[in-house]
Amino acid sequence: MKENKPLKRSAALRPLSIDHHQGLLLCWKIRTGIKRRIDPERISSYVRWFYKNHLLPHFEIEELHVFPVLGMDHELVKRAMGEHRLMRTLLPPISTNEKLAQAAEVLESHIRFEERRLFEQIQLVATPKELEQIQAVHQGLAFYENDTDRFWERES
């Protein structure tokens, strides 16, 4: 059995990895909502909020500042860009449990790919100046939660 060792992440990429952790939590929240038979529109409303406030800014940082380190023609970057395009069409209009489950699956797979393959490659080739620039552009984009409807929590 292959052992999954913790990934060593460059300090410059850690804020993006923290974003990825929040994305994985989004997947968990979607799946929890479906399992608890929460109205899909409640879940979709949260997903739309998360998409607008966290995913889109994250995609922009990656596309403008991270992916160019490898070059936009690099095979891993092309895959990531294709997945970003897919999520831009898949996430905002979701409204059924099936589409929510699909969105969670696609997002989780994408995050795992970026963390395990793309970011690993970027760390190998990025110059200190490129890493410094990546770290600088992510300043001030801390995660904040939408407390309007915490559907994933147990109701008392």
TrEMBL record:
Name of one Pfam family that matches: Hemerythrin
Domain Hemerythrin-like span(s) in chain numbering: 39-121
InterPro entries: Hemerythrin-like
Superkingdom classification of source: Bacteria
Protein name: Hemerythrin domain-containing protein
Organism whose genome encodes this protein: Flavobacterium arundinis
